[in-house]
């Protein structure tokens, strides 16, 4: 027969006349190191103790003391783009990740996933014989493809990882996460009352993956990508960690910035003549704040610090497990953050982060009424701008911005068998697209020119492994040019100089005001030289456009939240007729797969068969912090519209029939709010007025026939599954006024960024 596989033996008529042959599986060699990348989320340059703060990060500090700290390392200003660049060694626009993976703008630079023309580190290392594991946040597949319906082609196990345990979205509740194990959704293994926290669960699984492979194949090295949800909002930690920080930040962000900056100068993390950047607009002097604003801000920072320290403890557990296996010394461990500290808590901070995405300002006098909930399961908190800028000390601006506060982050490299000048600093400029080339150079392998028949985009990154050697500690950087762009914010670094502009939505791009900084002498961008050196500015802007052309940055696009809203098309989760039918039992739905019930009218009908006394949830979406739930209780149909803890609830006037019936709710917009009317077998049976109709309800999506995660309504506990037969749920999104609602949401989104 024709041979379709390589065979180097001999085949004759009988086995005694033939010669067998066994292919040799790929193996990187007995001395090949393990590779571990630990990624934190929204963690600023100064947040680790070893980068200046007085927050407790003893395990990260221990890695730094035995490895190298990089003082001039850069990323993109947002999570998905940094992850795409980190895992591919290419610039983020080039691989289709201009911004977060929650939308597809219709252009090659924003497809919501990494192009198949760019291999990931996991794909390359797996083909070299490595075991490959991922635990934590993915956020690199289109969210409309993140349900059990798939397609799965951009999930972790399809992009090079043998095993995966974590979540696919950009954030999740740390006590009630939406979890995926390999290619299927799973429930958390315990409850908050039983001591559950996501960060601990992620490390448990990462350790388990490694123990599995090393127990059976000790010869085989591993690549582990451990990407925590921390310290992205919601800032949540176990109670003992929260209690530890009570009162620690009552002196405020000005005192913290001064102290952290002094430590950075003292320890050589910054050049001695570096200046502390002035407060960002909207960050007021701490001493001038009203008392409730101080109380709220301090408590929100306590939650962040507790979250970070708890994460550090899990990193310590993970590193200790490597040591106990005898694998730590020969493990190249890289630890970094994906962008600077987040501005998404607004000027005051928020108890409910979803308020930020609904363009609502939560005033401190309102939020302090529930101050003791901050950091626990009953909050979805994020801290205010003042604490975010403290986390970015000594820089200005934040995540999303291309100034240093958004893109300058800590990087620690730990490898005892290779790094001899433990605890040293490295000041060479480098960027996140340099990580994958560093791994390849270190392992002595090349990224493939073609992969599964597809031509591969050349790497844009420059290996930084030359800095591992003590003799190279002070050599100039090999990275001479790097562009930045995010939502119209732009920057260009070239041999110690940086031109940067903070774009305002609605302003023509050609009218943006470009600033000029000599970063070699002015690390914190305090002295704008643009007026003095217009030719230098013009030359750098020219260079930015050339880089933009080469790396696929164009067209410039400053749209953000408005791109979240659903595009209706057939052959997708969102059909053109806006009609959805669900047939339980089924897995929970990610928010962007489900019907967009925010900011519009809709009808929901459940077809049920109910034995006498049967109760339970028919449809629930969101969490105890914001969401909606339709359920049967005490023979009545109940609808609870949970608007950030304000429950607008209606119970049916008529009993839900025993036997077969149709029950549901009609929601109609009225101004900023709406009216929800219960319907039983086509007849109205009670109405409630909702003063404010949420546009983005929650980052946690719906479940059918039960309430996944934390319960939306206070009327029941746990998942409260429906005890009867739920045949189907039908949801229709209204056109007409609903379309006008959508246009209004788009307009508000644009206004929110001005």
Describe this structure in words.
By secondary structure, the chain is of the alpha+beta class. Helices cover 21% and strands 22% of the residues. A hairpin with a 2-residue loop joins β21 and β22. α6 runs parallel beside α10. The protein starts with 33 loop residues before the first strand and ends with a helix.
Radius of gyration over C-alpha positions, nearest whole angstrom: 27 Å
Helix count from the secondary structure assignment: 14
Shape: globular
The low-confidence parts are 737-754
Question: Residue share in helices?
Answer: 10-25%
Descriptive key words:
single chain, 754 residues, alpha+beta, 11-stranded mixed sheet, 6-stranded antiparallel sheet, 14 helices, globular, disordered C terminus
Produce a short descriptive summary.
The C terminus is likely disordered.
Draw up the topology in text.
Blueprint: E1 34-40, H1 58-65, E2 68-74, H2 79-88, H3 121-127, E3 131-137, E4 163-167, E5 179-181, E6 184-186, H4 198-216, E7 222-227, H5 239-244, H6 252-266, H7 291-324, E8 331-337, H8 354-357, H9 364-367, H10 385-391, H11 404-407, E9 408-414, E10 424-426, E11 430-431, H12 435-443, E12 450-451, E13 454-455, E14 481-486, E15 489-494, E16 497-501, E17 515-518, H13 534-551, E18 579-582, E19 602-610, E20 616-623, E21 626-633, E22 636-643, E23 646-655, E24 659-670, E25 673-680, E26 683-690, E27 702-704, E28 725-733, H14 737-752
Parallel strand pairs: 1-7, 1-8, 2-10, 2-11, 3-4, 3-7
Antiparallel strand pairs: 2-9, 4-5, 5-6, 8-9, 12-13, 14-15, 15-16, 16-17, 18-28, 19-24, 19-28, 20-21, 20-27, 21-22, 22-23, 24-25, 25-26
Helix pairs in contact: 4-7, 6-10
């Amino acid at each position: 027969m024709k041979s379709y596989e390589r065979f180097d033996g001999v085949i004759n008529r009988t086995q005694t006349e033939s010669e067998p042959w066994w292919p040799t599986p790929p193996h990187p060699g007995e001395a090949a190191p393990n590779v571990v990348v630990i990624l934190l989320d929204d963690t600023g340059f100064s947040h680790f103790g070893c980068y200046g703060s007085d927050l407790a990060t003893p395990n990260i500090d221990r890695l730094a003391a035995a490895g190298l700290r990089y003082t001039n390392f850069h990323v993109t200003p947002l999570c998905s783009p940094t992850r795409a660049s980190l895992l591919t060694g290419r610039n983020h626009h080039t691989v289709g990740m201009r911004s977060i993976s929650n939308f597809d703008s219709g252009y090659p630079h924003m497809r919501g996933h990494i192009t198949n023309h760019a291999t990931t580190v996991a794909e390359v290392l797996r083909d070299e014989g490595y075991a490959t594991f991922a635990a934590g946040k993915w956020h690199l597949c289109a969210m409309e493809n993140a349900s059990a319906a798939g397609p799965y082609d951009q999930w972790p196990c399809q992009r090079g990882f043998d095993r995966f345990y974590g979540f696919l979205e950009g954030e999740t509740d740390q006590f009630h996460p939406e979890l995926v194990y390999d290619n299927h959704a799973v429930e958390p293994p315990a409850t908050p009352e039983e001591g559950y926290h996501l960060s601990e669960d992620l490390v448990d699984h990462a350790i388990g993956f490694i123990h599995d492979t090393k127990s059976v194949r000790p010869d085989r090295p591993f690549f582990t990508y451990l990407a925590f949800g921390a310290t992205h909002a919601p800032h949540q930690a176990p109670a003992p960690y929260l209690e530890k920080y009570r009162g620690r930040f009552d002196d405020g962000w000005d005192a913290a910035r001064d102290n952290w900056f002094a430590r950075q100068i003292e320890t050589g993390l910054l050049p001695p003549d570096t200046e502390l950047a002035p407060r960002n607009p909207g960050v007021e002097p701490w001493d001038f704040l009203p008392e409730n604003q101080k109380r709220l801000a301090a408590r929100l920072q306590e939650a962040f610090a507790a979250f970070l320290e708890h994460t550090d403890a899990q990193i310590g557990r993970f590193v200790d497990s490597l040591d106990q296996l005898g694998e730590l010394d020969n493990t190249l461990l890289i630890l970094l953050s994906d962008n600077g500290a987040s501005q998404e808590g607004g000027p005051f901070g928020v108890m409910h982060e979803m308020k930020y995405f609904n363009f609502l300002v939560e005033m401190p006098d309102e939020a302090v009424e529930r101050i003791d909930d901050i950091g626990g399961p009953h909050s979805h908190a994020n801290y205010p701008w003042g604490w975010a800028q403290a986390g970015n000390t000594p820089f200005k601006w934040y995540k999303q911005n291309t100034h240093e506060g958004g893109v300058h982050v800590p990087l620690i490299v730990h490898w005892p068998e290779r790094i001899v000048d433990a605890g040293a600093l490295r000041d060479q400029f480098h960027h996140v697209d340099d990580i994958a080339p560093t791994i390849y150079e270190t392992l002595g392998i090349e990224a493939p020119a073609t992969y599964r028949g597809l031509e591969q985009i050349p790497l844009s990154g420059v290996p930084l492994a030359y800095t591992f050697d003590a003799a190279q500690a002070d050599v100039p950087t090999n990275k001479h040019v790097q562009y930045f762009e995010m939502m119209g914010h732009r920057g260009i670094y070239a041999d110690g100089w940086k031109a940067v502009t903070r774009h305002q939505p609605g302003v023509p791009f050609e009218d943006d005001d470009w600033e000029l900084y000599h970063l070699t002498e002015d690390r914190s961008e305090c002295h704008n030289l643009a007026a003095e050196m217009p030719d230098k500015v013009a030359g750098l802007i020219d260079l930015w456009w050339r880089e933009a052309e080469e790396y696929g940055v164009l067209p410039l696009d400053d749209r953000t939240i408005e791109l979240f809203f659903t595009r209706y098309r057939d052959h997708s989760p969102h059909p053109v007729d806006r009609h959805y039918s669900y047939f339980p039992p089924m897995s929970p739905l990610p928010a962007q797969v489900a019907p967009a019930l925010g900011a519009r009218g809709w009808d929901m009908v459940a077809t049920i068969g109910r034995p006498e006394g049967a109760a339970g949830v028919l449809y629930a979406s969101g969490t105890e912090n914001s969401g909606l739930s339709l359920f049967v209780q005490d023979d009545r149909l109940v609808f609870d519209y949970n608007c950030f803890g304000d429950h607008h609830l209606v119970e049916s006037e008529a009993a839900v029939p025993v036997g077969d019936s149709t029950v549901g709710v009609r929601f109609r917009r009225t101004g900023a709010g709406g009216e929800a009317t219960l319907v039983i077998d086509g007849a109205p049976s009670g109405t409630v007025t909702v003063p404010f109709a949420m546009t983005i309800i929650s980052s946690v999506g719906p479940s059918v026939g039960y309430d996944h995660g934390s319960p939306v309504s206070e009327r029941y506990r746990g998942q409260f599954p429906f005890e009867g037969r739920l045949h189907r749920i039908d949801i229709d999104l209204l056109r007409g006024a609903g379309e006008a609602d959508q246009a209004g949401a788009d307009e508000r989104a644009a206004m929110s960024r001005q």
